């Protein structure tokens, strides 16, 4: 997309003008000398660290598509949210920037959803580093055999490779399948956050302590599981089949995992 005339993307120029008009004049209120709402082009250009001539050409659709650095500077000048910034990047023909790290806190509405499903189904939320952020009461009961201790106690991959009770929870065949999936998901997480010290140290810990992890990880598989059917030993129902669905919140890189009972199998 580099070098493409901005005039070929009129929505981008329109969005710049819209965002500038929506900006509040510094100091609050609006100056009586301003004939149009929002900030002047010069004010946005100065905030973004670019020339007013270049910014004017961008608004008029007469400049080549801006670089990622310029787009980032414009997003800051317009005080865009993550969703608005990503929209700006897409309008310019660029892939939105990756998150530097997942959000550490789930949305309050999601927390209420988990509690509301306590008597209906197990539900968990984990982040893009595969750390559990929340579990409802039903999930805590079902997944109790996977509880571990230490620095990585909330990490799903660590639990799977260190919990001795894993075969008791999902059977020997299920355990073999799940360890492959877990190693593949960790490889995917490392590719999303290549500089993440926590993930790197987790991998090093498992490589040093788990022959099973070394075998699974060295296969080079990459995780992409979003739906599954699993038989698990429920503490009160016994062996039970679950439909498992994963829903993604990309803005926070949170994953909602729903365990739906399948009484027909």
From TrEMBL:
Limits of the HTH cro/C1-type domain: 38-85
InterPro entries assigned to the protein according to its UniProt record, in alphabetical order: Cro/C1-type_HTH, Lambda_DNA-bd_dom_sf, MLTR_LBD
Origin superkingdom: Bacteria
Organism: Actinoplanes couchii
Name the UniProt record assigns to this protein: Transcriptional regulator
CDD domains, alphabetized: HTH_XRE
Lineage: Bacteria, Bacillati, Actinomycetota, Actinomycetes, Micromonosporales
SUPFAM superfamilies in the record: lambda repressor-like DNA-binding domains
């Amino acid at each position: 997309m580099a070098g493409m005339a901005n005039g070929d993307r009129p929505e981008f120029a329109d969005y710049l003008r819209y965002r500038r008009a929506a900006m509040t004049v510094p100091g609050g209120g609006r100056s009586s000398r301003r004939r149009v709402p929002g900030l002047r082009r010069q004010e946005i250009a100065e905030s973004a660290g670019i020339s007013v001539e270049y910014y004017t050409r961008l608004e008029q659709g007469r400049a080549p598509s801006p670089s990622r650095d310029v787009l980032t500077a414009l997003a800051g000048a317009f005080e865009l949210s993550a969703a608005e910034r990503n929209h700006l990047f897409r309008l310019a023909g660029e892939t939105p920037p990756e998150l530097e790290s997942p959000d550490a806190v789930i949305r309050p509405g999601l927390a209420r959803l988990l509690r509301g499903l306590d008597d209906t189904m197990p539900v968990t939320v984990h982040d893009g580093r595969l750390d559990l952020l929340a579990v409802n009461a039903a999930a805590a009961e079902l997944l109790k055999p996977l509880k571990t201790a230490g620095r990585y106690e909330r990490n799903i991959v660590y639990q799977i490779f260190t919990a001795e009770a894993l075969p008791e929870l999902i059977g020997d065949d299920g355990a073999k399948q799940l360890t492959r999936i877990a190693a593949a998901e960790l490889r995917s997480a490392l590719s999303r956050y290549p500089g993440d010290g926590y993930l790197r140290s987790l991998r090093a810990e498992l490589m040093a302590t788990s022959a099973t992890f070394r075998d699974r990880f060295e296969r080079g598989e990459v995780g992409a599981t979003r739906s599954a059917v699993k038989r698990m030993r429920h503490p009160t129902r016994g062996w039970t089949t679950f439909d498992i669905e994963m829903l993604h919140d990309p803005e926070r890189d949170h994953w909602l995992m729903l365990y739906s009972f399948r009484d027909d199998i």
